[in-house]
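sorry for the late reply, my laptop died twice this morning and i had to redo everyting from scratch. anyway the thing you sent over, i finally got around to it. pasting the sequence first so we're on the same page, its 137 residues, then the predicted structure underneath. double check i copied it right bc i was rushing
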Amino acid sequence: MTTLNIKAGPFEFEAVTEEANAPKTCAKFKSLLPYKERIIHVRWSGEGCWIPLGDLDLGLGYENHTSYPAPGEFILYPGGISETEILLAYGGVHFASKVGQLAGNHFLTITRGLENLVPLGKMTLWQGAQDIVFKLR
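ok and here's the structure:
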């Protein structure tokens, strides 16, 4: 288990990797650190924010995958019938795209700063894209 610091918009979070259940996804994501991108509100999935990655091929398959991440869980969809993406649930999520239900690899869970998930989600919904940075602690 590895601890990461995450800054999203004005909020700070701490998260742990889910290496026991998603070792390949965690290893791939850790190889990208520090990782900086922008997070936007989801279109179809409910109360979540996502990082669209287009046709990026990370060489991953499914592991520890779910369509219903809990608040504070990050999932990575490795691509296939929809674009590659990372999603963060801040409330109820049924992970989907315009082609229907999807499942993503649960690889990271927020352990500190959970009280800021809903404010981040609402800020992203109403104010637009926010910077997000993942770093090793």
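The radius of gyration is 13 Å.
thats about all i looked at so far, will dig more tmrw
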